[in-house]
Each structure stands twice: as structure tokens, then as C-alpha cells.
Amino acid sequence: MRILFIDNEGGGFADYLDVDRGITVEKFFAEKMPGRKPEDYLIRVNRQPVARDCVLQENDRVTITPLKIEGAAA
Amino acid sequence: MKDIKQLIVIADRIQDALRKLKRSRYTELLSQLTYLEDNLTEIADRSKRLRTSLERGWLSAAGSCCDGINRITNDVSYYLSRFKELSDKPVHEIPKLSAIVEDLRQLQQEFGKVELDKAANTISVVTEPITLQDVYLGPFEIKLDLNRLPELYRSNPYYCIALDPHPAATSEDVTHPHVSNERLCEGEGYPAIRAALEQGRLCDFFTIIRGILNTYSPDSPYVRLDEWDGQACYECGYVTDGENSYFCSFCDQTFCEQCSTCCHSCNETVCNSCSQLCAHCEESTCPNCIEQCPKCKRLYCSSCLEEDLCPNCKEELENENEQHSNQNTTTDEDGSPEQSATTQPEIQHSS
Questions:
Q1: Pick from A12, A11, A50: which is nearest to A29 by CA?
Q2: pTM score > 0.90 for this model?
């Protein structure tokens, strides 16, 4: 099934992806952000906070935004 | 929570700004292409001159042409990379009004309040009070200027305004380690911020900015957090940053540049109170390198003392010795008895 995935880490990737039916938010995060902790990210499905065992649905909009992003000096 | 009419008004303005941004992307591409065209025309012109120079055996002129072409190719690669950077980006459709309204609703959920200044055409949210490594920086207003959104490819169209400012001691303009003059240095967030704005994902834009404001990157701040409050000079109280404060190891205090000096003998940093001026060379000297002349009791640096005596006393002693020597010679010639030890000059060389 197809979902819209917006990854606000790095380049700000936003595109449609094919994922397995029945995949949970937790598993999707583990696949897309290997080695990262979910608590370090703002995870929204269809603009709403969801539980980690929430099952993704066709055409869902998943946004992952890091809570900590390193700035710099000009 | 704003009602639907208010959200539509804001969404309409955002949509309008996004249309202008889309146009500005092509304007910027055209601008880079124009620079490229001009440079390529210049290369073609110099290439002709190079050919002519070679045909006529003018090697010096040929070298000059090559130098010029070399300089222009540097500009060409810069404009080409700028062009590629922009043209490689996928073109996104401007989001529908309903999608922008949904985004604004999410923004309200994330930040609690969204403000639209109709006159200034800005959208603002306010962060929670921010504290980094126990340094309180206060809440920040993140203000997006919709009028400046089309300038995204040349400058930042938003501001980070400290609402309860606790700026760095050394600069009032620096209200956050990564904010100076209300401008955020985005660091790793740079591409994600641009992508979010280009695609009209306003909520993502504001949450990314909040993420940067909530993070301290010790490798590249305007002012380091461990130097945020600066260091007050022990003498005059002037607050300086770490690079311009000096530690005096004789009194164990920190001083500003004006209240400290450097021992001219050993180069040790010393405060003005602990240092002494050499009575001869008048240079600042630390307590370790200054000594009293045993004859005149004045203070001299170790460089000016010779055999423990200051230059004046040394000269006097030498004159006295010379006089005695002359007197002895005259007495010996007159057949007088030898001078006793008690008539020798009082100052004895310690060495």
C-alpha cells in the first residue's frame, strides 16, 4: 500500500512510499530510521500524535521531525 | 483556537506567497543562467584572442588570455552549481487551501497559538521557554514574513525573536547560541527548512526551527554556553569573553585586556596591580622577574640588573673602584703605605 512519508531530518525528504499492509508506526520508524530512538522525534500520522502500535493505512501521511537539530554560527 | 474563517484568510495569504516563491525559483534560475551566458561569451572572446596570440607567437599575451579564462571558469562552476542546486529540486504543486488550513490547525495543536499580523503579513508562533545546559534563554517568537518568502533563495524569510531575552554577556545581539540579530544559523536544518517552505509545510517549518532552538551545538555557536555570562574583570568589572580575559597567576584573578599586561622578561600574564615598572627600562615586569637594587633600593627587572646592581649603581661602583685604583697607584709611586681594607667601597659584588 502507498503512504506519504515526510522525513524532516537531513534534506527534508517528502515522497510516496510503498509499505507492507498492517505495518505499525513503530516498525515503520525502525525501518526508516535505523538506530534512532522514537522519543527523539516528533512522529505524526495524518497530523496527529499516535500510539506506537497504530497500524498505518493506505494514503496515510507520516511525518517524522527530529526534536534536536544542530544549528551553527554564520 | 482560530475559527475556520480566520484560518482560511491566513491560508490564502500563504498560498499567495507560495505562488510568488515558485515564480522566484524560476527567476533565480534565469538569473544564474544569465551569469553563465555572460561568462561563456567572455570565454569564447578570450579563446579567439588566445588563438590569435598563438598564431602570431605572442606567448605573453597567450598566457594572459589563459589566466583570464581560468578565472572565469571558477565563476562558471559556481553559477553552474547554483543552477544545478535549484534545478535538481523536484517541483511541487502548491498545496490546496484545504491542506494549508489543515497544516495551520496542526500548527495550533503543536504551539497552542498562531498569530497573523495582517498589516505586516507575518505568521508567528511562540516556543516554550528554552533552557540549554542550565542557561535560561527564554521563549522565542518564530516569525515568518510572507512578503519575504519569495526571497528564500537569497535570504532567510523569518526571524527568531527572544521574548524574554537573556543575551550573551559579550553581545546583546546574540540571544541564543545560534541566533544573532534575530537570525538563526540553521546548520543541519538548512535543507529541511527550505524543503518545508517550498512545499508549503508550514507546521514542519516551525517545528524544525523549534528543534534547532532546543539544541545546542558546541562546535559552532556564536557564543559558547560555558562563556554565556562572560567573565568580569577583577579590577574594573568589565565583562569580557574567554578570548579577551587574562588570568594573573600571582593573585589568582581574571582581568580584562586593559587591566593586565605581559611581563617583558618572561612573557607571563600579570595584572596591573601585581606588575611593577622597572626603574631603568620602564617595562612592566612580574614579581618573579623584578628585584631590588641593594644600593639604591629601587626595583629593576632582571634584564637591567647586572651583578645584582642597577646600571646607575654599577656605574658609580666602577667609578669609585677606578678612583681608588688611581689613588693607590699615586700613593704607591709616592712611597705611601698600602691602603687598609676598611677604605674599600661599601658595595661588594655578590658573585
A1: A50
A2: no
